[in-house]
Amino acid sequence: MNPSDVKILIVEDTTSLVLTYKEYLASEGFSLEVAATGKEAEEKISAYGPDIVLLDLNLPDKDGMEILKDLRTSCEETKVIVVTANASINIAIEAMQEGAYDFLVKPFQKERLLITVKNAIEQLQLSQEREQLSRAVESYREELDRKSYAGFIGSSPPMQAIYRMIDSSAPSKATVFITGESGTGKEVCARAIHDMSPRADKPFVALNCGAIPKDLIESEVFGHVKGAFTGASSDRDGAASRANGGTLFLDEICEMNMDLQVKLLRFLQTGSFMKVGGEKEEHVDIRIVCATNKDPLEEVQAERFR
To answer: Which of 97, 132, 169, 215 has its CA 20 to 30 A from that of 20?
Structure first.
């Protein structure tokens, strides 16, 4: 926590003491506010949200102990350092019982004040770290308890690992390659990545590269213009155009012929393509998710996959 991020409210009605405290604390770079009355202190606490309150118990309009009690209810994380000229041990005990972090008796040295404030800051940091850790543990516990997730059903450790991988990859724009045997849920995984991503409200277009004749797959991916080949009676958008803004899922991509793999590589690099028979280059913003039931490394070694 940087000193400039630490907000300290000085509640004191004696001007000379206010100036002294400000001089002590300003030299450390803290952000400071001052209140001279109980009413002003309550207003500043509400508006300013201090991390530390240097609280005089003897105020002209209100007992400082009442402000301390209110702070424990409204601002539990705020560290209150009570300041009083009364050295009575009973007041010190009462203040600590009401939640004061520490107790200073006037007059005190600069070093005593700064040590107390810095100790309070350390406690604030520890509290924040504990809260962050607690939230992280709770989040992790919730993840471990997930019995279903975005179309998947399963609560085993391997499934929880898959859920976490999807959580990690979904927000990215990176291309994802899913491998696995037929029937293991590769398309469910692809759709989960889309549904958990910022593109969830855009199209998800799935194309099975293994189920489309090789001479038609380029048209299916990029589209074609009228007259591009026999039977092309009108212009037609391909899967790339239909998925604009969303996700294009290319299933069984290892079935794609080598010539189209070259064109697909350029498309992945630039986001640009031309329809079959077209002369105009088109550009789309899509995320590619691919899948295969084959071993991609074996396919590369066999020179069937780029």
So the answer is: 97
